[in-house]
Amino acid sequence: MIEVRELRRVFGGVVALDGVTLTLAEGERRAVIGPNGAGKTTMINMLAGETAPTAGTIRLAGRDITRMRPWQRARLGLAHVYQRTELFASLSARDNVGLAVAAHRGPYRVFRAVPRAEYAEGEAVLGRVGLAGRESVAARDLSHGERRQLELAVALAQRPRVLLLDEPTAGMSPLETARITELIAGLDRTLTILIVEHDMDVVFRLADRVTVLHEGRVIADGTAADVRGDMRVHDVYLGKAVTVA
Amino acid sequence: MSPELVFQQALNGLSFGALLFILASGLSLVFGMMDVVNLAHGAFYMLGAYVALSVVQSTGSFWLAMLAAPLALGLLGFVLEPLLLRRLRGRHLDQVLLTIGVSLVIVDVIGQVWGREVRSLSAPAGLDGSVTLIGGVYPVYRLFVMAFGVALAAAMAVVYRRTRVGMLIRAGVQDAEMLGALGVNTNRLFASTFATGAALAGLAGVIAAPVFGVQPGMDTDPGLLYSLVVVVVGGLGTLSGAVAGSVLVGPADTFGKVLFQDVALAVIFAIVALVLLLKPTGLLGRIRIAR
Amino acid sequence: MRPLLRWALVAAAAVALVTFPYWSAPWVSRFATTLVRDALILAMFALSLDLLVGRAGMPSLGHAAFFGAGAYAAGITGQRLGTDQLPVTLGAAALVGALLAVVIGVLVVRSEGIFFLMLTLALAQIVFAIAFQWTALTGGSNGLSGVGRPVLAGIDFSAPDLMYVLVAVTFVLAALVIWGLARSPYGRALSGVRENERRMRALGYDTARLRLSAFVIAGTIAGIAGALSAYSTRFVSAQDAGLANSVRAFVTVLVGGAGTLGGPIVGSALVSLIERVVPSLLPTDLRISEAILGLVFIGFVLFARQGMVGLGRSAYYRVQHR
Q1: Percentage helix, strand, coil, to 5, in chain B?
Q2: Alpha carbon distances (Å) from C207 to C3, C198, C262
């Protein structure tokens, strides 16, 4: 479904990503982990189209999307949940999701109000992420955890084929983290998910396969169990809390 | 066009360019340091000319006016910055809007205090004659303007590159918040910068008065509009940008008016638009990434 | 408030507005009709600008270019084609406003913030310069005089009361259009572009095209407002396309409250009051209405950025949540 080949990104003198290759099958849940600075966010930004690669290619369902802009990739079914919350602050949760729902219906409907069916779809998504009852609240008035939930709702409302999650549980309480994790776990299996995470519990709960990045390169790639036992990964994470079975 | 005419127009263009430099440098400085496009810059320019008018009327001395006007405008700027702009620190667009309001007030007050007729200011004695140059006579005053512009640019370059103040300015153009973190009193720095910008505009008003007159509407034409043109073309925020812009726009405008007459103004702004599209920071400009 | 009741009130207000000269005759002078008429033209102009500034987040300081272009178009087509027919001249104004907005819009929509502001200012100045200097077409610095009387279905609208009705009806229609836009998915998309353009692109919206469309709609309505101005004064000045006029509209939007329907309307009432009524309250040799406007504007930018509508809302909430 997603094929990344020799992806490279150089910023000035810094090599953020140094020839990363990975492949995701349709419906696969892949976690990308690694210490800070390993290049995880850079990679996601390149997948989303926000940053152009210095070298390498990206294919989505066989199609070369390396040069495509974010909005073109969105139309092909790619959804991106940012590391830092990127919502429409003064708009209500309902409108935030509504924009995502309307995106694939075309925004140039000028003289009628938003159709009921669309509202219903939006409210359904909000319900799924646990924001039922908070539809009318402005995004900036939501709590941090609720905003991350809304982020996920907006992405899901796009009806994506591929979901890119950049640290979705960052800054969340254990309760909120558990809720979001179960939510993601319960997502439809036709959805391909790539998730960048620091929280190992989340990784082990969700991932089919895990890719470990270090200094811009892939140092390990396998099932969660494989990676857990890989000594190189332990070395790289020395000092970090990793639950070893 | 005869060679004499070309030469004359070239001199006109250069003296206009010198004037534009004096005018635009203040706008560029304020933008570079504070990320604010001071839309009251033209009003400051206008006020400088009118203050000069009064000073000359009461004392008869043009030179005194050349001192008094920048001083007065500098004081005004020094007061306005903390009074108004500082409250909106970080809200750059709102600061720009604020300067629109300031402009409205100043221009109207000028009209009320000094009247709305066209006034004039003569060049000072000693500079009001003409000199014989290649193929014709040329006003001494315009040569003076050119010399003054060059001298000012040189002086500013020296200050900019060789003094501590200049270093602060250069650093501030890069990153003013960082300066604050390093212990520099940014409040005073910003107030002084804004005051200097205003003073330069006032100075330009005095110097331009014998050439362009003193009348309603001068805040926009030539005031604000030409400063914007120079600063956008040459480069926002840098001294070299202001120089480059003035040297380009001055002669271009002069020759444009001679050759194209009616369409000249449109052409000038078309060039502005083009530059803004291709290189928004201008030919030699730099801006901080500000939000 | 029940929707039906609200609709009834709005309809009643609209009718009262349109028929103002007739029922107010016993109490107010002709001056009042002229004042309200001009305020409505400003309101329409400001409403169109607010679509850009308040809704789409595009701070334009060159909106008068379209107002002026529309005014000239109405006057010039009337004179050149020898017609007084309203559909022709008004249609020309709308068309010219739209076309100019496309030309300028294509150049400006990829800029943001302060650069967008300066770019719109510069481009509007080109339009102004052309109007000011193309004497053969526009009358140059003398302006275009003798703008024809607008005629529709045999009715000559140049009589003061009828002119008012024409302006008021057009205003109500324009307000309805903008209101409809605001509530629609399109309006919401514009708000999205304002709030977070990056996210809109990530969702799949072509934000440049959205902005351009908003720019064109705003330019068209501004052009129509300009035409109305030309009809009412029978004159078009180059200043109609000038910076001062753009500033005036911007001030109106901000002071009233950007991003709301009522804002530009309330703002135009205040601005008209300051420009027209205040001078008559001051001694005749004290002409500082622009300075007062400037001070009011500064006050709002500093202390009441959300404008009068914003102030009203805060007061309302404070009362509600006592």
Answers
A1: 75, 5, 20
A2: 33, 9, 26
Helix (H, G, I), strand (E, B) or coil at A29: strand
Among C186, C198, C200, select the one facing A109 at the smallest CB separation: C186
Encoded tokens for C1: 């408030």
What is the ipTM for the molecules in this complex? 0.87
Q: Which two tokens stand for residue A69?
A: 């802009």
pLDDT in tens, A74-85: 888 899 888 788
Using an 8 Å CB-CB cutoff, list residues of chain C that contact chain B: 59, 107, 111, 113-115, 117-119, 121-123, 125-126, 129-130, 132-135, 242-244, 247, 250-251, 254, 286-291, 293-295, 297-298, 301-302, 305
**Residue C111: Cβ within 10 Å count:** 18
pTM above 0.90, yes or no: no
From the list B96, B104, B105, the residue facing C114 with the nearest CB is: B96
Domain boundaries, chain B: 16-114+138-278
Q: Kindly give, in sequence order, each residue whose CB lies less than 8 Å from that of residue B98, ignoring residues fewer than 6 positions away.
A: B84, B85, B88, C298, C301, C302
DSSP letter, residue A51:
S
Q: Measured between CB atoms, which of B35, B107, B229 is closest to C290? A: B107
Q: Are C241 and C131 in contact (CB under 8 A)?
A: yes
Nearest residue in A to C178, CA atom: A111
Domains and CATH numbers, chain A: 25-54+67-77+160-245 (3.40.50.300), 89-158 (no CATH)
DSSP string, C67-88: HHHHHHHHHHHHHHHT--BHHH
* Average pLDDT estimate for A177-188: 86
